[in-house]
Amino acid sequence: MDKAALFITIKAFVHVSTAFSNPDRLLVEEIVYPPPADYRQVIQLVEQLDQETLKPLEQQLLKNLPNTYVFSKALAEQVIYDQRGLLPAAIFRPSV
Description:
Blueprint (H helix, E strand, L loop, with lengths): L12 E4 L22 H10 L2 H4 L3 H5 L5 H15 L6 E4 L4
Parallel strand pairs: 1-2
């Protein structure tokens, strides 16, 4: 998202997430929930470890999330939230 701030003509940043990025909640409100992990630490792990080493850590990182897709959506929402001051941003959570 910080790259997007370099483009002066961009009026806003809209991230398409999913209503299922918080499957452990009965009601998903219009807020960004705490992520299952710190995205900065996850990026570090992925950059430093190979897949064979990462695979056993997967369930520990996912916690109660069903899969890596939902996990990555939750992390992405946190990135957008943390960068929200750079330009107007919105998170759109459509359902299927």
